[in-house]
Fold these 4 entries.
Entry 1:
Amino acid sequence: MLRVVIVRHGQSVANAEGRWQGQLDYELSAEGLRQAELLRGRFTEEKFDPQFVYASPLIRAMGTAEIAMPAKRIITIDDLKEGGAGVFEGRTMDEIRKEYPEVALEFERTRSFNSVPNAESRFDFRKRAQTVVDFFVRGHNKDDEIVAFTHSGLMMFIIAVIMGTNRVWTLRIPNTSVFDFRIDPNTWNIANSLSGSQGVSAQNTGGFEVRRFADSSHLN
């Protein structure tokens, strides 16, 4: 089966300051650099040698990839960027509550960016995640191993696509945590990933396996 490993970037300066980043380009913090080094040690110990390494072009993801996979050619994919957070970008939640009180109230009630000015819509975000997973599955051979360095918001949607559900969970995804999936391209049907109401069985029929989920044990 195709091995798909998805990794969140190391801690960024904005993470450390409690700021929404979206698609703003913040560098890794000192702690983020340390986390990426620990991830490299883990991958070296595990002898993880993927044929393809992908990364969001945002520097916090690209920088993590460069440290964790120093001998590999890293291919950037725009669709691996974090979701656009509109007017939230660059601000802390306290600042947002002061500057956009009604928007903040609605967001905290629904956790949806649909009400945030200039933010990427949930529909577009989901569509982008589906495009990414489709590329992973259709663009590689069944015995390939790939790794993608990306962002927690997009990862939640990628996980929903792989698991074939419309529901997107708010997950705790630590910096540099690892998700490890096996996907069978012969039984995978990306068109059916959106809804069981389209006649898709709710059972996992062997199209994918979850080997690791938000694993950050290398940080311990």
Note: Residues 85-119 form one domain.
Entry 2:
Amino acid sequence: MPSDDFFVASFEKLQRMGHVGANPNPATGGRLRPRTTRFPTGKDGRRLFKPRKVENFNSILGREIKKQGWQKPLAAGWIMGQWPSVVGHDIAAHTKIEMVKGSTLFITCDSTAWATNLRLMQRRILQTIAAMIGPNIITQLKIFGPKPPSWRKGRLHVKGRGPRDTYG
């Protein structure tokens, strides 16, 4: 183990070379310069903090929706919720969206006449949907007439022709 003399000699050598000494800044004669503030201060001298840039909720939510790939399901849900504003209240009163599967919208109508009229307006409805939620989200409409009631009661039933087109 080196002796204390070795450490003292090393310190003195470094001091002569100018690496170690009592004067930390020879240009100022040993006086330390006052620290300059690099941030704004108030009238009382306390530091003023910069206001943070806070993102609004809409941009955060939009970024998360894109990241997760939820655009199509959310757009389809929006169509189901806003159906009266898409087709109008008169048509919406006689139609019901059953489901969205892929890019196909399944619609059930009150009567076969409403189903026929809706099929004739199909192109305009698809254009309106594309304008509201974007292209290639809903590309096809499947339009059905009313569902007849089931005549089956209970677990057991007899095969037969049953009622024909008596409804709608």
Note: Helices lie at 4-17, 57-68, 71-81, 83-87, 89-94, 112-120, 122-133.
Entry 3:
Amino acid sequence: MRKSVLLIMMLFTVSMAANAQKFALIDTEYIMKNIPAAQSANEQMQEATKKYQSEVEALAKEAQKMFQDYQAKSSTLSAAQKTKTEDAIVAKEKEAAELKRNYFGPEGELAKMRDKLITPIQDDIYEAVKAISQQHGYDMVIDRASATGIIFANPRIDISDEILRKLGYSN
């Protein structure tokens, strides 16, 4: 009886080992920080963000000033002048909102810039991860930067430096 239990346990252990999956870990933030083109792209996007934000804020401030002037003068304005001024304020606010959407929306200038500058780098990283995963037989590669549930990972399964070498960047 004891031998059969041991035999079953050994078979179970062997079958579990045969089904074990190989995992690897990457850190895309680390990889991106070590790729000069990615750093340059991030700097360009930050500069564009500041520029676009200042333009949107200028329009919003202009609308706010128009509203404050309207409030100060509203008692002296005729009904037609009030309506005209209110329409101008609403138009300026809409203009600011439209500009914000054109710059920061899902199909705005920043999204287009990101697609042009960052997406090709991310595609290269993906292809390198895919090639290394197939070469080493990894069943799954987890990104430390986006997997908030990782509390600890053994550094030996981190293949970030290998990805950088595959892309032609040494660390």
Note: The first strand starts at residue 23 and ends at 26.
Entry 4:
Amino acid sequence: MLKSLKLKERLLIGYAIPVVIYLGLAGLVYGTAQQIFQTFKEVERVQSVIVGANDLSDKSQGMIRGFRGYLAVENPRFLEEYQTASAEFGVALEAIRGLVVDPSQQQRLVELDSLKRQYESQTFQMISLLQNNQRTEALEIFNRGQATQFVEQFDRLNQEFAISEENLLQQQTTRATESLQNLITLVILGSLVLIVSAVTIALWIAGGVARSINQASSAIASSSTEIGATIEQQERTATQQATSVNETTTTMDELGASSRQVAEQAEASVAGAKRALLLTQGGAKAVESTLEGMEELKQRVSAIAEQIVLLSEQTGQIGNISALVSDLANQTNILALNAAVEAVRAGEHGKGFAVVASEIRKLADQSKKSAEKINTLVREIQASINSTVMVTEEGTKTVEEGVQIAQKTADAFTGVAEAVNDVVLNNQQIFLNIKQQAIAVQQVVEAMNALNLGAKETAGGISQARMGTQKLSEAALDLKAIV
């Protein structure tokens, strides 16, 4: 399977294997280095815990010194030293708690905190007695030794805590040393494996390349003679092809001229069709304007008809009012007549009233006559309005018929415009096709010219190739001798 690989594939495999080995080695080195870094972090943490434990011991000793100094001389400076050391002890204890991860060590910290609180409780009692001038009672409590027991237990726990952390530090240091030794060993072994594999692969590739070149040079040497004979035959064929291509080029030139003439005629046809389309579109727009005018006329005639109907209704109302006035005049006349009769009956006292009644009758007669004239005028106006309504209806029908005719004309123009547009599109497509054909013919002519030139160059190149083949045969023999 390896023998069937190409030279490129062999080279890729030759480079890939050392790269894979190197990447694997780098991965192992990275993993080991991460372990070492983690170990160093753990060592740093343990060292911080040990420093904190020593700080706790110092703060506890400061508490003891401050309390005992205050107990001995009752100097407030020692009490302040005691309180400061107690506060700093609490801060240091909280700092250590954030670093300790071992449950047993955490339990020791809890016990240390408890002992500190018990010691503070005991000392607080004695300090209170001293501040109340009860020194004897305070000394009695101190002499019982409870505070001393707290101190001894505290020192024991603190020592156990420090020893445990030191043991853990020793373990982490040993682990870091072993990891470094493993890393060094891994780097040395990996480098040796990488060097051996690279040398082995280089020898394998070099041997394969040498065999491939040897076989190829033998094949080239044996094939160069056959190629020389074939090239001589191709040289004769190329000369004949050059002659044929020259004749074909002349024919294609004539075909190109004909195609260009057809393209010019098609372009003229497209221009004429476009002009017809523009005229048709103008006619369609004129018909559309006529339709809009007819529609506007129809709306105006309809408005006139509505106004005439409204006028007829108002004229009818005037007639009704005139009839009502005539009725009122008749009734007024009757009432005036009755009033005149009553005035006659009244004698001298009714003469003035008789005169008024006579005047009222005259006014009533005039109102009746005026109402009759108004009725006559109203009837004439209604007759005229009826005639106008009939004429308006006829005009509306005529306008509607004109709109229908104009619409049909517009539809006809639209159909003509669509047909002309189709003609324009078809002519444009024909023009484009002919133009493309002309371009294609021109390209063929150019290709034939290039082919003619290429055939001539091929004929000359084949002669050079024959000479090159001879040189290739000689080079193959030289290559075979070198390998």
Note: The mean pLDDT is 77.
